[in-house]
Amino acid sequence: MSRPSASVPMIAFVCTGNICRSPLAEALARHHAGLAGLAAQVRFESFGTHDYHVGQGADPRTVATARRFGIDLSGHRARQVDAGHCQRARRVFAMDAGHHRHLHRLAPSLRGRIEPYLPWLGLAGDDVPDPYYGDADGFVAVHRLLDEASRRLVERLPDLLSGADD
Predict the structure, then answer these.
(1) How far separated are the first and last CA of the chain, in Å rounded?
(2) Domain 10-162 has what CATH class?
């Protein structure tokens, strides 16, 4: 699937190393936007707050779980977020409270564009759990949570992209 050009609005997802939660959120959002016929209207990207895994692919457990549910993460390469990414994004979604604080320190003037992902969507809990130190069941649980979050995000995309959701 081709990606939209850099001229369309970007929505970014941020976790710690950009190998588990944020690349999965990116891929699932892209998938659901495609199903809704909105893929050409928005660009999804993901980043990490830290440079631990820059240039590496997604965690093999994330890749395997995503593949199990029909999502391809084979082309993902981890990147570290910078203030420019935040400035270019229509919205930046933090996977947990620590990422949210980090992003606010990185781009303090952009507070209105940086949001914790689950609360913005009205989902229970403040944080997307980090499956990195857990077992395969944790990756499946995070996949299910992010899949639901992506469905809700796509429902709100028309308003978000028009600026009505600001």
Answers:
(1) 29
(2) alpha beta
Residue 120 near residue 144 (C-beta atoms within 8 A): no
CB of 78 closer than 8 Å to CB of 18: yes
Q: What is the pLDDT of residues 9-44, one digit of tens each?
A: 999 999 999 999 999 999 999 999 999 999 999 999
Residues noted as catalytic: 15, 21, 130
Model-wide pTM > 0.85: yes
For 48-65, write each residue's pLDDT tens digit.
Answer: 999 999 999 999 999 999
Element (H, E) at 144: helix 136-162
User: SS3 for 134?
Assistant: coil
Q: What is the rounded CA–CA span in Å between residue 25 and residue 92?
A: 12
- What is the 3-state composition of the chain as percent helix, strand, coil, each rounded to the nearest 5? 50, 15, 40
Query: What are the sequence ranges of the domains in the chain?
Result: 10-162
Neighbours of 51 (CB within 10 A): 13
* Location of structure tokens 């003037």: 109
